[in-house]
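Journal club side-thread
Mid-discussion, someone asked how the predicted structure for our own chain would compare to the paper's figures. Pasting it here so we can look after the session.
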Amino acid sequence: MVAIIDYGAGNLLSVEKALRHVGCECVITADVKEFLAADAAVLPGVGAFGDAMKNLRERGLEQPIREFIALGKPFLGICLGLQVLFEGSEEAPGVPGLGILKGKLFRLPSGGGLKVPHMGWNSLQVKKQKGLFAGIRQEPYVYFVHSYYLQAEEDVVTATAQYGVEIHAAVQKGSLFACQFHPEKSGELGLSLLRNFVEQR
């Protein structure tokens, strides 16, 4: 069973639909006991960093997420779910993230014909063909919607993208995975990434 964590940040049903499409049993839940009992978990989300951290704390999910990851069970952060795993974001100065991974989010630069938010299809440069990217061809196209980009410690970065700056688009540390793009909106390639995640259980 994969728990899709509901903390009021949306994007839950599309993730559930994609996981079910790859044959995964899953449940959308905000119940800590149900989440901790799951074999794997997904933290999706769209919206603002500060609101996301406020919701996680108010719903008592911050420490359970840390515990779940510490157990070594597969965990996937998607979009805003990636961002909150890190130390902080320029979007919400002074608001600490979960700090499970080292790194920070910065606002994408505008100009030069590039619009912010970055919305649409973009190729990835796969750095490590393991985990989510096992068996994935080089430079796959995936779907992004975001205004802030990650700069993380290089050793966890598994894929990057270019959009005015180099974006750390996906990371992995042990059984913890996260991606700035939306695999659930990235067609067959995205389904392959989710299938790879499910197979980590």
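Post-session note: The chain has a mean pLDDT of 96.
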